[in-house]
Amino acid sequence: MSSLAVNVELPELQNPLMPYLRQDRIPHIWCPGCGIGTSLNAFIRALDEMQFDLNKLAVVSGIGCTGRVAGYLNVDSFHTTHGRAIPFATGLKLGNPDLKVVVYSGDGDLFAIGGNHFIHAARRNMDLFVVCVNNFTYGMTGGQVAPTTPLGATQTTMPYGNFEPPFNLPYLADSCGAVYVARWTVYHVRQLTRAFKEGLSKKGFVFLEVLSPCPTLYSRRNRLGDGVEQLKYYKEKSVVKNGADTRDVGLSFQGDIVVGTFVNRERPTWLEAMNEHFSQRFGDRYQPYGVHRED
Amino acid sequence: MKSVIKGNSAVAHGVRLARAQVIAAYPITPQTSIIEDLASFVAQGQLRATFVKVESEHSALAACIGAASAGARVFTATSAQGLALMHELIHWAAGARLPIVLADVNRAMAPGWSIWTDQNDTLSQRDTGWMQVYCASSQEVLDSVVQAYKVSEKVLLPTMIVLDAFFLSHTHEVVDIPEQELVDRFLPPLDLPLKLDIQRPGAFGNLVFPDRYMEFRYKIELAHREALEVWRQVDEEWGRLTGRSYGLVDSYKVEDADTVLLTAGTPASTARVAVDRLREEGLAVGVVRLRVFRPFPGADLARVLAGRRRVVVLDRNCSYGHHGIFHQETKSALYDLPERRRPQLVGVIAGLGGRDITAGDIAAILRKASHGELAPVSWWNVLQPEEELEAAVACK
């Protein structure tokens, strides 16, 4: 070992994506091996690669570990009440239709307490990009059974394994009318980044499910090892099936995972449908809402 | 059996001993470990009940209302936002006269988001027709849950058992967990006089026209008046069985006190330490703790406070645009006292969003109050807007 004092002037080094984060909020609360940060990294990369105009972006979160995304992103963001991210976002979108509104939340928030809002926003084809980080559990409150928990998995409120069948989220989104439905895991960072880009470019109700490990609660309670072990599972058990019938993509405990873009279709958004409806009814007397007229 | 457990576990043991039959709940910090303990009791067969983790607090209380309407003994637990989400059904439970017991771990309301304690979540439910009991120890939490079933089932009103976030919910204390046999003697199985019963078909939840609605409401008021006496009797009966009773209003060194601090929840325990300290300094001070808040024991409060020189009410809550809620309520209770027996009353708002209320704080408040130096209404240990701005800038 050298005893010489080395004094080298290093240039200020910073990850080029750091400006996308509120650095005064770092360190974040996510546990080692959690995939929420990886999903956020893919989201930020998508924004960066698209050179997305951040003045046209709003990110809305509900409550839970994933709900913290809104607080860490250095864009206009809104940390709302539990389950209500979608209605808050709906108001935001209708109040300022120029915005791209992204709802970034967890499975408990979006599909238990907020489930009703999800199905109705999809039915209306509200122009929202809904990202669900699915870790199969309630992370923030300590690992209770969620509407996504696979059959047989152990949770604090299911100490001998879950007996409630979980939702198949892509099927739910598809059947309610979402125009874009995809699922990836946090192992698939390239595909995930591409899916974020597609979601940001797509008009209408877009749903992206991101499977993520929860090493502290879900994995530990089910003896599934650490975050790396779960990534290995994602790598080994994921099968890419673009265009798969969403009825066939339900998940089982540590079973196969069908990933890919399942749905990509066109349908008028709620605002388009409203403008079309009133224009037909009232003709020129109706001024379409949220549409900028060329002067 | 004596055991060292958290306040939240004390709730769960109380519910287990009361033999609740249906438990429906949704996770929320700092309540969650109550329902986790109950899920374990049910799964391990220590409590023969149905436990369902539903999709929201609104659904949790709705499920409890359904089960109670069918005659089951039910339980749920929540905090802050969860209780607010239940609000519609909180009214329903009381209006339908269902003896539901709910534990609320007092937590501050958002925004700003806070998981720490204050009393505005439960006090926002003050006028719903529920009974409310504010606890100060884990033992009292367990005992109050069992008592609550007995009172609720006698007067047909729901009860909210209230405990402070973290200071009580997550603090371990020695708790004497009674034997099942003792609780069974105290609390017989529920037999609701009116329930959904296929042998006696009936329709619940119908429209009530103006010629009858008021009578329904008047009966709730009559039940509350009766409940005041029932709480007293049930608490005394529990005292005979276990040696522990708490009263509706709990007082400490008040008889010869010149200045009395009145509060609810755990700050009342802290206040005892402050009172002992100030007594050594020669100040004649005491503490009154409001335990049962609804029905309101106004006459008891007036009796214990009559003739004291000053009363300072410590509120961990605020009715914005007016002042502390216990302060207002105490004022109303003292109004009817003859002027020479009526204490001066001041109110202090402290400890919102979990800010600590130390024995030092309470001693300072009591010292100031004893010297007549407290404004009629004040906020304790709070930055002025310009100071807050400076602090925020310094933080950056």
Mean pLDDT of chain B: 97
Shape of chain A: globular
Major protein interface: A-B, 20 and 22 residues
**Poorly predicted segments of chain A:** none
Number of DSSP strand runs of chain B: 15
Q: Any idea how many domains of chain A?
A: 1
Structural class assignment of chain A:
alpha/beta
Helix content of chain A: 25-40%
CATH superfamily (homologous) name of chain A: Thiamin diphosphate (ThDP)-binding fold, Pyr/PP domains
Mind explaining what this structure looks like?
- The complex is a heterodimer of chains A (295) and B (396).
- Chain A contains ten helices and ten strands.
- With 295 residues, chain A is an alpha/beta fold.
- In chain A, the strands form two sheets. Chain A has an eight-stranded mixed beta sheet, with helices on both faces.
- In chain A, helix 2 links the parallel strand 1 and strand 2.
- In chain A, helix 4 crosses helix 5.
- The mean pLDDT of chain A is 95.
- By secondary structure, chain B is of the alpha/beta class.
- Chain B has two domains: 241 residues, 3-Layer(aba) Sandwich (Rossmann fold), CATH 3.40.50; 145 residues, Rossmann fold, CATH 3.40.50.920.
- In chain B, 42% of the residues lie in helices and 18% in strands.
- In chain B, helix 1 runs parallel beside helix 7, helix 3 runs parallel beside helix 5 and helix 11 packs across helix 12.
- Chains A and B meet through strand 6 of A and helix 2 of B.
